[in-house]
Structures are given as structure tokens and as C-alpha cells.
Amino acid sequence: MPAHLLGNIADNFAIKPEWRDAQEGAPDQSPEQLIWRDIDPTALGRRQTRVDADGLWFSPTQVGFSEAAQTYPDSMDGVPDPLDLMTVTDPSGTPWPVLVSRPAWEEPLAPEVEVARPPRRRIWLEIDAYVVRTEQVAMVAEWAKGKDWFGRWMPTPPDMHNVLLGSLPDDPAWDVTADDMQDWWGHAATKPAADLSLCAVRYAGTGTSRDESGADEARGYVPSRELASVLAIADGKDFVYSDSKGVAVWDPSVRAGGPATLMMRRDLATRVADAGLTLFWAVLIGNERNSDGIPPDDYRCVNASGSYVLDGNRIKLIDASAHRDSPGPTVETHLTWQPKSEA
Prior knowledge:
Structural class: alpha+beta
Largest sheet: 12 strands, antiparallel
Strand content: 25-35%
Number of strands: 15
Number of helices: 7
Helix content: 10-25%
Shape: globular
Oligomer: single chain
Distance between the termini: 60 Å
Number of domains: 2
Order of helices and strands: HHEEEHEHEEEEHEEHEHEEEE
Radius of gyration: 22 Å
């Protein structure tokens, strides 16, 4: 199609919005708006399908399921402490606070047992960090006390498809992440009167299945525009973002396998504080025994919530709660749970 004809079309017609956008057409701003890719040449990493049997340093906790795994859980026994997964140390001894992670463990089953698809125990955590202004952190901490994150109603990192990984943060295609705290999932009336923003965005590949260059596209977390600006990092390469001291923020799971995990070098907490900001974490935990189909009437599971804040160079617990639920879900019993207070 001649270039002048394309220009006339762009000058007189709006661009059809993607599913995530408003119903109105968008003005023509960039040729990228008309592209749907089957490959991202700026994303070269490939996720490992096999993980080291000794575990991963950035998600170090292992869960051992006991004989009690054959019954519905009734406590937080065996559930990893969130701080053990929120503060990790690399092989060189450098500490890394975790900004986002989704670790999960399933009860191991023998092949001859697994083929019958019996009920299976599963423990999982959802760790999400948010940027908050220092003068508002006391208000956010007070608001977080007693909050139950069950239902995943807090905003979480949005998925980004059909954008170039290497174009973050300047490409207008990433503009959709600017309002990343809009989805409160029915809890907008209870959100704090504070300026929270997400630390991360999930790069989810091209959004197509046409890429034949490998078995699986690289997917993982990248820093949000605000975090990248605060930390003065840019021009990342394969989910690694550096500053003058070396790697500053990255998702090591892209090459090592394991749960997608975005982390920040711990000394950068000073840079965050210098900008008049700090970090707040919401952690949701599930302890379940699931099977296919509709849960029976006697089904029970355990859910827990924790809130944390970055105080100086330490991550400190604000509040934590746990409860055993029956189908509905309905809180059946409030449980005793005392996670670590700081790390």
C-alpha cells in the first residue's frame, strides 16, 4: 500500500482500540499501533524448562508435605514465612528485596498415583510491592491493619502483550501501565487515601502463538515506569536493568526457570528514600487440597494475608492474619499465625 495512502488514512481515521482500552478510537501516534507481532527481536532470553534440583537462590524455600497432606489443611503449618521469600541473597552475598513473586509448591505424587488425578495439596504465595510516599506510609500502614487480601482485590502488575521488551520505558505502547492502580475489583471504596503505584509490569510476550523460534516465549516481570524513574535505570536487556554499580533490578527466572520474580538490589532502598518514597507489600497465601470439579461440602482451605513496609533498610511486618474457610467461601475459623516481624 502506498505510503501517502497510509498517511491519508491515519490523518482521517482513528485507530481501532485494543480490548483493554476504551471503546473510543485512539489517535494515530506511532506505526507501532498498527503492528501485531509474532516475534519480539528485543527479547532473546528463553526460560529454562528444568530447574536445578538444589533449588533457586531467588526463591529458596522448599516445602515438605507430610502425611497430613491427605487431609484438608487446618493451620499454617508447613507454609513458608513470607519474609524468607521477600528478602533473598544471591551467591555472591548481595541481598535483594523481592518486589513481585508467585511461588507455589505441589504435593509430589508417584506417577501411578498422579495418573488417577487424586486430590493434591498446594501452597502458594502472591507477593506484590507498591511505591508509596514517605509521608503517607503511616496512613497506609494503619489502613492495612486487619485487611484480608483474599479475592485478589488489590491491583496487581498488568500483563503487556505485543510491545517490544527493549522499548521500555519510552515507547508510547507502555502508556497503558501509567494508570496501573485502577483495578480494585469491587473494593475501590476501601482503598487508602494515598498515592500507591505498582512496582512492576508483567511482559507477557507477543500475545500470539505464531512464533516458531523457540518452544516458549520469554515472559517475566519488568520495573514500572515510576520505579525505573526513581532508580534512574533504563535500557534494560532481557529483563535485566542496570545502574553504575551493576545489575539494579531484574527477573532472574527468565533464564534460570522457577517462579517469575522481580527484585531490587538492597542498597537502592536509599535511592528510594532520597526520592521521598518507600515500599509497601501485600502478601496473599493459600494452603489448599484441591481436586477436579466442584469442591465437596466438606472442602476446607486456609488463606492468609500479610502487610509489610520498607523501614530504612529493613522490611517490617505491619499485620498478619489467617483463617480456615469452607465453600462459599466463608470464614470458618480464625487461626493463630505469627510470621517473622522483620528481615
